């Protein structure tokens, strides 16, 4: 009986192992198929771009519309190339888990040799003193292999030649050679500083890859759009673990600032109004010791399910505007518990200020509308609350709460009573009625700061985090795809978080790209901006 049960158990385990192996193989094949599809899409886009450039040369059309079309196609190719590289790396990782599926490999054009005019810096790996096979010290040099890595020094290009000398043992004839140097990207040629510069200029300085390629060409370096896109896609994959750590850190906050802005996303024959969402953790206003960080997401629209998905695991205070898409988060029946809503007084003040802006009215001249005395008085009363907040910024939550209850509470009660009185006197058609209703209908969320010292009066932290995208829209015009917008959001998370911790994003990216492959996984958080220190030391250890 025992033998029968054992046999049955072994058979069941064998069936389970076989099913698991089949599932792994299926996932690997699916990853290969996706990589092949992405590669095909990138190739088609590349060929279309080349056809349009040839037509442009043959027929000499110089219209603004044609120029914009070529720019759009170059941006689309950029996103497709980066996506293809990401999918290829995913296919490689999936294939590593199975012995039956061979990873998909993209066909790439042969790389041109580095220009001869670039200076060469030889970095010689120390030769072994004895044979690692038998221990003999009788080594004879047979030759050397050179691996060239394109690297950049600010305003100076160079090629680093890493020399790996070969030695043979006279006693056992064993050939010895150090391993090849590490590259961030498998089979890559770009050094970490060059990669960091490309990433920072694209996502931090809002310079599309086609413009970077043109500038490098003027400096004597031929790096095509496709090559740069390959590098971006691969770096995004390499840096994903750090993004995940920042995401976990942000969503573990007691309080978040949330906001969004529009980002045009290229679709078939047109652009759609996509959105970039940000959630900022910044505890410094209430004396919190947690490091600041910003988290970004991209979406094709502004539907309510996006913030619900972004903040699925979050439970705390959300400072945001009055966008109705957040209401699902405030629902008491929410599985993770309701999120506490706190509204932005700067939004409310702005609506009154527009009706009381004396300087703007002076510029409008005779056509200016009359200054609203109610709006002017509302601005003065709100400013009195802001004056108190400036004095307690950076203090502990307990001290902020004490001052607010002593000084702000009476002003808040008086402001509510005054607003209700003024609302009863003005008609529904009055220009000042709308901002008054905006506040009174949500008064409990506006007044929540009086009971919690962690809450700020404004949502300026989130607005500052989105300022880069607002400025960038003028440069890159639109995102090349939805995945491209997501890639921009991921890189903005890293770059903005570095800036918030007073770390140079480009220097930080260069260092972590050089170290991340050999860095222990369980100590990956040492590479986060608030722990990172140049020269391989963390801030905690410095």
Annotation keywords:
542 residues
Distance between the termini: 66 Å
| Average pLDDT reading | 84
Domains counted in the coordinates: how many? 4
Q: Biggest sheet, in brief?
A: 5 strands, mixed
Widest beta sheet: strand line-up = 7-6-5-8-9
The shape is elongated
Please give a structural write-up:
It is a single chain. Helix 5 crosses helix 14 (482-500) and helix 7 packs antiparallel against helix 9 (373-392). The protein has helices at residues 2-59, 64-96, 192-204, 209-218, 225-251, 305-310, 345-356, 358-364, 373-392, 397-425, 433-440, 443-446, 460-476, 482-500, 505-515; strands at residues 120-124, 139-153, 156-169, 175-176, 255-267, 270-281, 293-299, 317-320, 340-343. By secondary structure, it is an alpha/beta fold. The chain is built from 15 helices and nine strands. It has four domains: 2-96; 112-188, no CATH class; 207-344 and 459-542, no CATH class; 345-452, no CATH class. It is elongated, with a radius of gyration of 30 Å. The strands form two sheets. A five-stranded mixed beta sheet has the order 7-6-5-8-9. Strands 1, 2, 3 and 4 form a four-stranded mixed beta sheet that branches. The mean pLDDT is 84. 51% of the residues lie in helices and 14% in strands. Strand 3 (156-169) and strand 4 form a beta hairpin.
């Amino acid at each position: 009986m025992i033998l029968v049960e054992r046999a049955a158990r072994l058979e069941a385990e064998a069936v389970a192992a076989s099913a698991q192996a089949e599932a792994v193989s299926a996932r690997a094949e699916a990853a290969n198929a996706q990589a092949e599809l992405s590669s095909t899409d990138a190739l088609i886009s590349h060929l279309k771009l080349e056809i349009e450039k040839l037509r442009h040369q043959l027929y000499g059309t110089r219209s603004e519309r044609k120029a914009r079309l070529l720019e759009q196609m170059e941006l689309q190719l950029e996103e497709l190339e980066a996506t293809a590289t990401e999918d290829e790396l995913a296919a490689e990782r999936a294939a590593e888990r199975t012995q039956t599926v061979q990873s998909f490999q993209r066909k790439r054009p042969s790389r041109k040799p580095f220009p001869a005019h670039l200076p060469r810096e030889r970095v010689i790996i120390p030769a072994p003193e004895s044979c690692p096979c038998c221990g003999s010290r009788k080594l004879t040099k047979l030759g050397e292999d050179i691996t060239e890595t394109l690297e950049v020094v600010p305003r100076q290009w160079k090629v680093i030649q890493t020399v790996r000398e070969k030695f043979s043992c006279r006693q056992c004839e064993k050939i010895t050679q150090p391993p090849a140097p590490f590259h961030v990207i498998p089979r890559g040629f770009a050094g970490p500083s060059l990669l960091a510069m490309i990433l920072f200029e694209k996502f931090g300085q809002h310079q599309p890859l086609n413009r970077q390629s043109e500038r490098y060409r003027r400096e004597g370096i031929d790096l095509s759009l496709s090559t740069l896109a390959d590098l971006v896609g691969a770096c995004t994959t390499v840096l994903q673990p750090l993004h995940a750590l920042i995401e976990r850190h942000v969503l573990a906050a007691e309080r978040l600032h949330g906001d969004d802005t529009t980002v045009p996303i290229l679709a078939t024959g047109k652009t759609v109004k996509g959105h970039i969402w940000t959630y900022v953790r910044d505890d410094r206003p209430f004396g919190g010791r947690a490091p600041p960080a910003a988290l970004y997401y991209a979406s094709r629209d502004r539907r309510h399910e996006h913030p619900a998905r972004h903040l699925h695991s979050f439970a705390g205070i959300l400072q945001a505007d009055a966008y109705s898409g957040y209401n699902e988060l405030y629902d008491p029946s929410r599985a993770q518990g309701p999120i506490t809503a706190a509204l932005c007084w700067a939004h409310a003040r702005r609506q009154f200020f527009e009706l009381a802006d004396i300087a703007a009215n002076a510029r409008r001249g005779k056509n200016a509308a009359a200054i609203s005395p109610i709006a002017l008085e509302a601005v003065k009363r709100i400013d009195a609350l802001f004056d108190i907040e400036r004095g307690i910024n950076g203090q502990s939550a307990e001290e902020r709460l004490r001052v607010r209850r002593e000084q702000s509470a009476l002003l808040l009660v008086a402001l509510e009573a005054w607003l209700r009185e003024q609302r009863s006197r003005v008609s529904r058609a009055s220009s000042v009625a709308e901002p008054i209703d905006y506040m009174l209908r949500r008064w409990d969320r506006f007044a929540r700061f009086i009971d919690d010292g962690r809450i700020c009066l404004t949502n300026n932290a989130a607005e500052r985090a989105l300022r880069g995208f607002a400025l960038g829209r003028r440069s890159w015009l639109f995102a090349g795809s939805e995945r491209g917008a997501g890639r921009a959001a991921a890189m903005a998370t890293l770059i903005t978080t570095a800036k918030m911790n007073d770390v140079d994003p480009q220097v930080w990216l260069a260092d972590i790209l050089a170290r991340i492959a050999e860095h222990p996984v369980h100590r990956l958080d040492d590479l986060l901006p608030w722990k990172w220190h140049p020269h391989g030391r963390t801030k905690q250890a410095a």
